């Protein structure tokens, strides 16, 4: 497995210091602290090479032979025609049997999934428009809903965390970019001195809502360490409709 910047093997990352220098947190140094998700992810991958996550994914019948070839932190993916991209905490490209696999990792300790639900973000953006401020967010959100859900007007979609929508969109778009047949969105929580059960439970509940909708209501509960899928989505010019989507989450002690 090669850890590098921008999926470019000439930009290898061999230490936590390399990681920070070459791929600093998208939100700046304020997010690089011992016990928080950005540094914990770096420490974990440098030391363990994704071991817990890979073993968890391998429990699923579709990924018994999963191997990772290359991975990159802070990797940006375009998922629609607008400027701002999805920045994955880590993207990994590998194989399982004959299938090429893209894994997008979202690292957590006590952080939530962004700063609001789909409805809250949409309403704030519409309020800006009404006072003459330019924003593409309402158009982007409408496009994401149509690309990810057959019944895009379903009320429960508005209650999802917006970060989860563009995370899944970015995961599928990156799978397409790398000609992968399978895509996995994986939430990896690190139990550090900053971890609290209430934060993990909140995030698990948010992820469960998304899995419920993608499964068309067939999956009502999710378990740590279990991979769910495959799901497919309607798609768009950037988001493929023929890539199998899976989701999972685990905790690792640090």
- Using only C-alpha atoms, the radius of gyration works out to 17 Å
Q: Which structural class do the helices and strands define? A: alpha/beta
pLDDT averaged residue by residue: 96
Largest sheet: 7 strands, mixed
Q: What is the percentage of strand-forming residues?
A: 15-25%
Alpha-carbon distance between the two ends = 21 Å
Give helix and strand order, one letter per element, not per position. EHHHEEEHHHHEHEE
Q: Find the count of extended strands (DSSP E, 2+ residues).
A: 7
Q: Categorize the overall geometry.
A: globular
Which stretches are poorly predicted, pLDDT < 50 over at least 5 residues? none
Strand order of the largest sheet: 1-2-3-4-5-7-6
Count of domains:
1
Supply the number of helical segments: 8
Percent helix range: 25-40%
Keyphrases for this structure?
254 residues, alpha/beta, 35% helix, 23% strand
What features would you describe in this structure?
- It is a single chain.
- This protein has 254 residues and is an alpha/beta fold.
- It has one domain (2-111, 170-253).
- Helix content is 35%, strand content 23%.
- It contains 8 helices and 7 strands, in the order βαααβββααααβαββ.
- The protein has helices spanning 16-22, 37-48, 51-57, 118-130, 137-148, 155-158, 162-177, 197-214; strands at 2-3, 67-77, 86-96, 99-108, 182-191, 228-231, 244-253.
- Strands 1-2-3-4-5-7-6 form a 7-stranded mixed beta sheet, with helices on both faces.
- Helix 5 (137-148) crosses helix 7.
- The longest helix is centred in the C-terminal third of the chain and has 18 residues, at 197-214.
- The protein is globular, with a radius of gyration of 17 Å.
- 40% of the residues are buried.
């Amino acid at each position: 497995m090669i850890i590098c910047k921008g999926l470019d093997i000439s930009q290898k990352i061999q230490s936590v210091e390399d990681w920070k220098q070459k791929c600093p947190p998208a939100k700046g140094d304020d997010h690089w602290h011992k016990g928080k998700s950005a540094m914990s992810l770096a420490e974990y991958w440098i030391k363990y090479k994704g071991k817990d996550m890979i073993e968890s994914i391998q429990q699923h019948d579709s990924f018994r032979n999963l191997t990772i070839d290359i991975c990159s932190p802070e990797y940006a993916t375009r998922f629609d025609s607008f400027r701002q991209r999805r920045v994955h905490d880590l993207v990994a490209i590998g194989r399982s049997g004959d299938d090429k696999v893209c894994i997008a990792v979202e690292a957590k300790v006590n952080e939530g999934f962004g700063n609001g639900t789909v409805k809250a973000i949409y309403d704030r953006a519409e309020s800006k428009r009404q006072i003459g401020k330019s924003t593409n967010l309402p158009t982007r959100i409408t496009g994401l809903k149509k690309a990810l859900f057959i019944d895009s007007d379903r009320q429960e979609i508005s209650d999802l965390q917006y970060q989860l929508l563009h995370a899944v969109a970015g995961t599928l778009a990156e799978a397409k970019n790398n000609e992968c047949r399978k895509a996995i969105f994986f939430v990896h929580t690190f139990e550090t001195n900053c971890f609290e059960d209430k934060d993990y439970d909140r995030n698990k509940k948010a992820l469960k809502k998304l899995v419920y909708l993608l499964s068309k209501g067939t999956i009502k509960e999710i378990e740590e360490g279990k991979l769910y899928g495959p799901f497919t989505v309607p798609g768009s010019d950037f988001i493929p409709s023929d890539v199998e989507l899976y989701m999972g989450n685990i905790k690792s002690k640090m």
